[in-house]
Structures are given as structure tokens and as C-alpha cells.
Amino acid sequence: MRRIISLGIFASLSSVLALAATVSGTLLDESCYAQQKKTAACPAKMSTTSFALVSAGQVFKLDLAGNEKASAALKARADRSTDPTHPSNSGAVTATVSGTISGDTIQVESISVQ
Questions:
Q1: What is the pTM of this model?
Q2: Residue 19: pLDDT above 80?
Q3: Hey, where are the domains in the chain?
């Protein structure tokens, strides 16, 4: 019994360590995506408050701190279009997020927006 418990604890710790990652993809408006389920219809905008990241067909929600960091990064982005309420690059905003993945959510440590 002790051996089984030890193996279970080891497996749990190993899986948590393996989930730290850097993910690149397209930043989405998570609220829009939750309703429409279409990534093309929901690009992140300056007014977005809840973000998601789509990478290799998988959609990850950002945690609360990640939403704040994404919003700040989007607003500070140097290549904004002339209308600051809309991102440039035909609406698509690419981002690289570093953090810990837990299910379909990323606990964001850092984010860079292109």
C-alpha cells in the first residue's frame, strides 16, 4: 500500500512539472469564442477583457492575471493600427505565452504580443 501511494505521489508531481510551457498562437476574445465557437470570428481587440489563445487547434483560456497582462500588452503594442480600438494585421493578434497549463487554462507568467 505504501508503494502504491508513493508511486501516485511521484506520478502527480511529475505531471505537474511537465505542464509548464511556452505556447504561441492567436489571441482571441474568450467571451466571443465561448458563444460562437469560431476562432476566426473572435479576434482579440483593445476592449477585450477575457482572453484565450488558440495554438495547433487547441484553445486555452488565460487566468485572471493573464487577462490583465494580455490587455496591457495589447494596449502597449507598438504596431497598432490608426484606430486604437482595433488591432492591426487584419484582426489577428499573435502572442507567446509562458506559464503553467492546467486543463484548458494557462496560468500566465509572461506574455508577448506581436
A1: 0.74
A2: no
A3: 20-113
